[in-house]
Design goal:
single chain, 200 residues, alpha+beta, SH3 type barrels, 7-stranded antiparallel sheet
Length: 200
């Protein structure tokens, strides 16, 4: 069994940003023939994206008896869906896998396999990959209920890998769509708008 400089076993009672959770159920409402039905999507793996400080404050507040404790509660915890890298590679045949595996594609994040020694369940897991377009939330109370029953805490990213994941995720979410790239010729319609603005 080998160790890892990327992962470690979860050490705190509360969840951490960059923590891998297995068998996580995501509740959602499905509309079938105009009838709303409660459903659950099961994620074999998901990674916590909420901030460490918020997660710690929420957990400690839930253990507290102070009257103002609810002010520190998180209503939901943010996750990214995680897939086995081999499956994501098969789904993205038109993309350069080398760019994804080296974390040079802004939409995807690659995580190398985790050894048994760093997995709280002593199983280890294969290479993983994240599509930053696939994120979701789970109500916090339901999340901790799952952790006491079906869901499993597996491993957490060490620094600086945790911050690397977080910064890449939030950078992708705040990307700006430009009408044209710098240096590209200006489309005719933009020329017209520019002329109208000048006259005004």
């Amino acid at each position: 069994m080998s160790s890892s400089d990327i992962y470690e076993r979860p050490l705190s009672s509360w969840l951490c940003q960059g923590e891998i959770i297995a068998n996580l159920h995501q509740p959602f409402i499905e509309i079938v023939d105009e009838v709303r039905k409660a459903r659950e999507l099961i994620h074999p793996f998901a990674v916590v994206m909420s901030q460490d400080c918020d997660l710690e404050w929420d957990f400690k507040a839930r253990q507290s008896t102070k009257p103002d404790r609810a002010q520190k509660f998180l209503s939901n915890v943010l996750f990214c869906e995680v897939a086995e890298a081999a499956n994501l590679k098969a789904q993205n045949k038109n993309k350069s896998w080398t760019r994804i595996a080296e974390n040079n594609d802004p939409r995807f994040h690659f995580l190398e396999k985790c050894p048994q020694t760093c997995d709280l369940q002593n199983l280890g897991y294969a290479d993983l990959a994240i599509d930053f377009k696939k994120f979701f939330t789970v109500p916090t109370e339901y999340l901790y209920f799952q952790l006491a029953s079906n869901a499993q805490r597996r491993a957490v990213l060490r620094q600086p890998y945790k911050v690397h994941l977080s910064s890449r995720f939030y950078f992708f979410q705040i990307r700006i769509g430009l009408p044209r790239n710098h240096g590209d010729p200006m489309p005719v319609e933009l020329d017209v708008i520019k002329e109208l603005n000048y006259r005004l």
